[in-house]
Amino acid sequence: MPPVFTSRICAVCVAFVVVLFFILTPSVLYQSSNKSSTFDTLDVQIPFTESVFHTTSEDDVQEVSATDTGLNTTGINQQEVSDRPLILYAYYETENARKNLEYFLAHGLHAAADFIFILNGDNHAEDIIPTEPNIRFIHRENNCYDIGAFAEVLTKNDLYKKYSKFITLNASIRGPFLPHWTQGCWSDMFLGKVTEEVKLVGITMNCEAPVPHIQSMIWATDRIGMETLLFPTEKQIETLKKILPRLKEGERVPEIKNPGINSCPNEYWDAVAVEVYATPLIKAAGYKVDAMMTAYQASDKYEEECMRNDYQDVLYAGKYFGMDIHPYDTIFTKANRDGNVVALEKFTEWMKDRKYTSYDYCHS
Fold first, then answer.
1. Cis omega (within 30 of 0) on the bond before 179?
2. What average pLDDT does the chain have?
3. I need a surface site. Which of 183, 249, 252, 277 has the fewest CB within 10 A?
4. With pLDDT > 70 as the criterion, what percentage of the chain qualifies?
5. Calpha distance 31→42 (Å, rounded)
6. Sign of CA dihedral 264, 83, 234, 219
7. Are 341 and 92 in contact (CB under 8 A)?
8. Cα separation values, 310 from 185, 303, 318, Å
9. Concatenated DSSP letters for 250-291?
10. CB under 8 Å to 110, separation ≥6 — which residues?
11. Residues in Cβ contact with 29 at an 8 Å cutoff, skipping those fewer than 6 apart
């Protein structure tokens, strides 16, 4: 048999094997037989870049298993830090959360940041998450609450070291909501408030006991802030304990157990404590916090005033100085409370009718 003909037969055989392999294992690129992580299987690098991530078909499954949320960073120069923000979105399936996720996918995604959707518990939210080089998702068990899930993902293989800017948010809020005359990018608006002095930014401050705190539905910070939250120093912890007030009798928020966010709370009030004590921890490290809500911006002494006047949680109906907090006031708004129901639905409808997309406003 002529050599040329033999080589052609071999080439055909190889092509047939390759085609058969992809037919029988359509998700092989993203899920190995032992359910190792997406990034381990792809052997890609973090941060996300188009040169690193392969464009995938809609049939490919982008998944990291609940038992291994590892992001493969083997062989990467540890000094390489992306200037792109890393945005983590924690999701647990409810009817309201699904609406909020759908809204965020339609209006909040853009190409100027890297997104990781943390899918907690049994759900198939990945079916509606777009396939883009800068968007990934992770499946995990529904434990540790949102903040613990963020810490788990960020610390696995030192993912947090690959970024200098971070936003964490969960599916209890809906947004972004921005007026038609605003040209800015929502993530820039949050990260723009993170400075050399300010290391934790959110939408609202809750002044209810035991201490005023930036509520954790959405947080923005930088590397310094994130490292403080993940790995507070002994000195910072010592200072934190000194500045915390003595708990009043009957206080539902327990005493601090594990300073910072790098723990796995299993009880609701333990998770609340992680949120509450994050603000004084940032202060114990010598930094400030900030909130988007206009009432906070209107006074340099808002925290003192709110404690003195016993301000309540502004996210409930009528508790924002006699009003409901408006979506434009904070860009994102709590969607599972009893406040602003009509405004939330109307602005959701109007943003859709405007065909608003963050891709038009958020650029690298």
1. no
2. 83
3. 249
4. 78
5. 9
6. negative
7. no
8. 34, 10, 15
9. T-SSPPPSSSSS-S---SHHHHHHHHHHHHHHHHHTT-EEEE
10. 185, 187, 357, 358, 359, 361, 362
11. 41, 42, 54, 56, 60
User: Is 28 within 8 Å of 21 (Cβ atoms)?
Assistant: yes
Q: What is the torsional sign of CA 175, 221, 117, 184?
A: positive
Cα 96 off chain centre by: 18
Cα(70)–Cα(66) distance, rounded to whole angstroms? 10
Mean pLDDT of 40-66: 33
Strands (E), 192-312: 198-202, 205-206, 213-214, 218-222, 288-291
Structure tokens belonging to residue 105: 């996918």
Our separate counts of H helices and E strands in the chain read 12, 11
Per the document, the length of the chain is 364
The CA R_g of the chain, rounded to the nearest whole Å, is 23
H-helix or E-strand containing 87? Answer: strand 86-92
Gap between the Cα atoms of 161 and 78, Å rounded: 7
Distance CA(86)–CA(246), nearest Å, equals 36
**pLDDT tens string 205-221:** 998 879 999 999 999 99
Whether the per-residue pLDDT at 204 is higher than 70: the answer is yes
Instruction: Identify the CATH number of the domain defined by range 27-360.
Output: 3.90.550
Candidates 151, 299, 300, 286; CA nearest to 216 is: 151
- Other beta carbons within 10 angstroms of residue 224's beta carbon come to 15
Q: Residues 312, 305: contact at Cβ < 8 Å?
A: no
d(CA 298, CA 255): 31
The token duo for 199 is 């290391």
